[in-house]
DNA sequence: ACGTTATAGTTACAAATGAAACTAATTGCA
DNA sequence: TGCAATTAGTTTCATTTGTAACTATAACGT
């Protein structure tokens, strides 16, 4: 053991992680960068959060969903969905009715105002995605798709919590 | 326009996003799944957060950093680092001294207790990463690396906030 | 030397998030 | 029927996080 250890590139006996090559860390940075870039676009303009936008996005695709179904399709938990919906209904972007035969369930739809926002934000989001993907060539994009599919599959039998983290 | 619109796969005129094919969304899910899987390991056992772990990881690699340098290397903002350090110092996992010539700066190092935890957690984290990567073959892993490098480069000239989101 | 500006880090407050408890309606089944 | 167990959704409370303001020290320009 060296008597005097120099400051900067240290501590080899402990095999420290190199964060910059560590997959979870890199994914986290990338995911945040990309999501933020998109959110910056609409957050200021429409005062809408990522959570809210995701709810609107699924309601645009599937009309008349219940809150639970929204939660499933957004990979958010039901409390987060409940809160997002409360705000969206309050500002008149989503219409909430009660299911005819099951009075526990709500029946959710975008209002005209909701659609109007959707029709601005969705193309913006797509454009941003395109910008990001433009850094890759066609072959790389194909591999990325394939890799994401494989990584998302088979959540390794065990424990734990899942889900989107806005 | 159809007089009666069926409920489920709706609203084509509005070109809604398909979240499940939307890159930012997929990255977010994947990143959270992977980070959570690892965090589950150490969070319960050592009562340590992702933020704290990242700080410890860079201090393991570079001794004597200042808080600002830790922030740079973890891609976290300085407030988050300050808070993580406060806890780490409080529980005796990090030692904080003051820089000789610049009394604003702190000089941070893992304590023995900090190293002990590091030496358990780092191999666990690496093992989890290996589990995730085991879903890919060697070729896919190579592409993934290359793709992540390219995506992380050139944060598209513009605006915005960056950073890791624990 | 001295005031201005910049930098390191912390604190205070508001908003977002997560976990658990809770209400209400529905289902299953004895 | 009638009651225990489920399911949908909300509320409450504690914790976390983000933003801005703040303190202290150092650097810069004259």
Main sheet makeup of chain A: 2 strands, antiparallel
Mean pLDDT figure of chain A: 87
Number of helices of chain A: 6
What assembly state would you assign to the polypeptide chains in this entry? homodimer
Order of H and E elements of chain A: HHHHEEHH
Q: Tell me the span between the first and last alpha carbons of chain A.
A: 47 Å
Q: Helix fraction of chain A?
A: 55-70%
Spatial strand order of the main sheet of chain A: 1-2
List low-confidence stretches of chain A: 1-9, 156-166
**Biggest protein-protein contact in the assembly:** A-B, 77 and 77 residues
Total strands of chain A: 2
The outline of chain A comes out as: globular
Q: Beta-strand level of the residues of chain A, as a percent range?
A: 5-15%
How does the helix and strand content of chain A classify structurally? mainly alpha
Radius of gyration of chain A, Cα only, in angstroms? 21 Å
Structure description:
The structure is a homodimer of 166-residue chains. Chain A has a two-stranded antiparallel sheet. In chain A, α2 crosses α5 and α3 packs across α4 (78-90). Chain A has six helices and two strands; from the N terminus they run ααααββαα. Chain A has 166 residues and is mostly helical. Chains A and B meet through α1, α2, α5 and α6 of A and α1, α2, α5 and α6 of B. Chain A binds a DNA duplex (30 and 30 nucleotides) through residues 49, 51, 66-68, 77-83, 85-86, 102-106, 165-166.
């Amino acid at each position: 053991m060296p008597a005097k250890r120099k400051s900067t590139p240290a501590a080899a006996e402990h095999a420290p992680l190199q964060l910059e090559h560590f997959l979870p860390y890199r994914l986290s940075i990338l995911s945040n960068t990309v999501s933020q870039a998109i959110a910056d676009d609409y957050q200021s303009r429409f005062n809408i959060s990522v959570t809210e936008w995701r709810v609107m996005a699924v309601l645009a695709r599937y009309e008349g969903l219940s809150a639970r179904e929204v939660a499933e399709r957004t990979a958010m938990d039901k409390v987060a969905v409940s809160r997002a919906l409360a705000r969206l209904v309050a500002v008149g972007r989503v219409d909430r009715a009660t299911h005819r035969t099951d009075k526990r369930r709500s029946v959710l739809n975008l209002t005209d105002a909701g659609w109007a926002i959707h029709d601005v934000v969705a193309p913006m989001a797509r454009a941003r995605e395109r910008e990001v993907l433009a850094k890759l060539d066609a072959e790389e994009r194909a591999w990325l798709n394939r890799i994401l599919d494989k990584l998302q599959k088979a959540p390794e039998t065990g424990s734990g919590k899942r889900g989107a983290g806005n």
